[in-house]
């Protein structure tokens, strides 16, 4: 099994901790087809001597301490209490050692401050709750602090934005490990989107934009129905009932990204589904997702997923998933 260690410290918020446990801890074999032994063995770890209070509501006394990180494949650091500046030296040493031996390290919300204190974010892009990004930049000037995304995947070190963005990060870990089909099943079980659009800039207090009639959902649904062909901003704006300039401004304010980048991500996501669930050639997948050719698919797929379409299919194709739909070009 893939061992996931989740260090908690005094005052860790219950909600942020629960997002990790909700996605990674339950046995998903019945719904996903992934055998229990191939899923996650989640271990709650005391990041400092316990018992430890979670918020004001509960007390935990995990049997394992920071030494448990020595056998973890992934470490997901829960947030500390608000405003904490000192972190246990034993925990920081264990994080450094786990990373050095090849463990994947992640943080939820202000858990990024713990990773930064361990030196694991130096020279890397990272994110934390929008209300704490300035403080993270001030305390740790060597960190490339991001401000508008829900999570950052820098390969072996990942960070998430505030609170519910921990769900997004954990679903992303499932997607990396088991593919988009399994991540989608887990998301549906938790009644959340498999992948939220935009970034935490949407949730920073700001004036409410004037949304054009038919609204966000209808506009995005329309575009999802056009993934197999080129779509320009002018045509999309007409479908949304507004001018191209107003549409582009509204789209960025609403989703945190541009229409072109959103479409590219949706096309890549559709390509992932087809590569997992069908026997279509990569060339045919590219055509059905609006990329035209396999060469046209390769670069955006590599940018978004971190691997090539061929390698993705080898990892997450029908044989690994134990069967699935099949179609031909």
Automatic annotation (TrEMBL):
Residues 217-315 form the HTH araC/xylS-type domain. Signal peptide: none annotated. InterPro entries: Class_I_gatase-like, DJ-1/PfpI, Homeodomain-like_sf, HTH_AraC, INH-QAR. Keywords: Transcription, Transcription regulation. It comes from the Bacteria. Coiled coil: none annotated. It holds the Pfam family HTH_18. The keyword Transcription applies. This is Helix-turn-helix domain-containing protein. It comes from Actinomycetospora chlora.
């Amino acid at each position: 099994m893939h061992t996931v260690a989740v260090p908690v410290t005094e005052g860790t918020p219950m909600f942020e901790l629960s997002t990790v446990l909700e996605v990674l801890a339950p046995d998903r074999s019945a719904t996903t087809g992934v055998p229990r032994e191939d899923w996650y063995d989640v271990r709650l770890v005391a990041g400092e001597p316990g018992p430890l209070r979670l918020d004001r509501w509960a007390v935990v006394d995990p049997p394992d301490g920071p030494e448990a990180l020595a056998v973890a494949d992934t470490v997901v650091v829960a947030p500390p209490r608000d405003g904490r500046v000192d972190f246990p030296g034993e925990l920081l040493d264990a994080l450094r050692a786990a990373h050095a031996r090849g463990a994947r390290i992640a943080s939820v919300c202000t858990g990024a401050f713990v990773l930064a204190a361990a030196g694991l974010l130096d020279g890397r892009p990272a994110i934390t709750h929008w209300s704490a990004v300035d403080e993270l930049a001030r305390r740790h000037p060597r960190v490339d602090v991001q401000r508008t995304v829900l999570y950052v995947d820098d390969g072996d070190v990942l960070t998430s934005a505030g609170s519910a963005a921990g769900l997004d990060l954990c679903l992303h870990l499932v997607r990396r490990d088991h593919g988009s089909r399994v991540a989608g099943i887990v998301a549906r079980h938790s009644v959340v989107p498999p992948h939220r659009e935009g970034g935490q800039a949407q949730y920073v207090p700001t004036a409410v934009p004037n949304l054009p009639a038919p609204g966000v959902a209808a506009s995005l649904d329309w575009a999802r129905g056009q993934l197999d062909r080129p779509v320009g901003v002018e045509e999309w704006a007409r479908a949304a009932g507004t001018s191209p300039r107003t549409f582009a401004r509204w789209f960025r304010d609403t989703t945190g990204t541009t229409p072109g980048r959103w479409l590219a991500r949706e096309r890549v996501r559709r390509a992932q589904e087809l590569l997992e669930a069908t026997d279509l050639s990569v060339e045919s997948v590219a055509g059905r997702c609006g990329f035209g050719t396999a060469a046209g698919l390769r670069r955006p797929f590599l940018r978004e997923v971190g691997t090539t379409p061929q390698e993705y299919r080898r990892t997450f194709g029908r044989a690994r998933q134990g069967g699935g739909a099949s179609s031909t070009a």
